[in-house]
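Prompt: I keep going back and forth on a fold encoding question. Comparing notes only helps if you start from a blank page. Show me how you would write down a chain together with its backbone fold. Please set it down just below, with no commentary around it:
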Amino acid sequence: EEFGVNWADYFSDVISYRTPQPELTFLNYRPFKKWLAEEFNKGTGWDEVTYKIITASGTVGENPAATYVGFHQGDKSRLASETTRVFLSTQIQCAECHDHKFIDMPQETFHHVAAFFVRVQTKLPWNDSNQIVVSSKAAGEHKMPEKNKEMQPAAFSSKMLDPGQSDVVRRTELARWVVGAENPWFAKAYTNRVWARLMGRGFCEPV
């Protein structure tokens, strides 16, 4: 049992590292850690766990996989930057307001990813994070600030999702791409995290 608990503690810390506390709601990670530990001890692959985390809906207490989206309050900007950081070890947050200063990453890169989360909505109860509900908006498209440019969902590729798609379709397509064999970053990011956890230093630093 300690195997699952160990890795649940680690990945819960990775996921919660930049999760801000809502003003009146204490975030309780215990159900999420328990769910992660059970998944790891069943031998569920990190790809399947990741898929569940990105696509989850419902009440956090009943479906702990919804913790990630729920605790970020469905915020499209935070979810865009954190999804790439956590699961791909790729930092895109610097491109939210302008083209990246140090690498070839236009501002559009960030906002194409944010468009996957534009129809997520969350309901935060007072002082009980288990009752946070992740659901979907019926409509809405993401636009780049100032430019007022409507962005199609896309993740680091020329393949774009047509506008008008539901929240479920958007997050499902993103999750499929994140864990898919054609994505070169997912397996590398996971391998680097595991190696760093076991050996004290990753192949690539910072992890």
About this structure: DSSP finds eight helices and five strands in the chain. The CA atoms of residues 25 and 127 lie 4 Å apart.
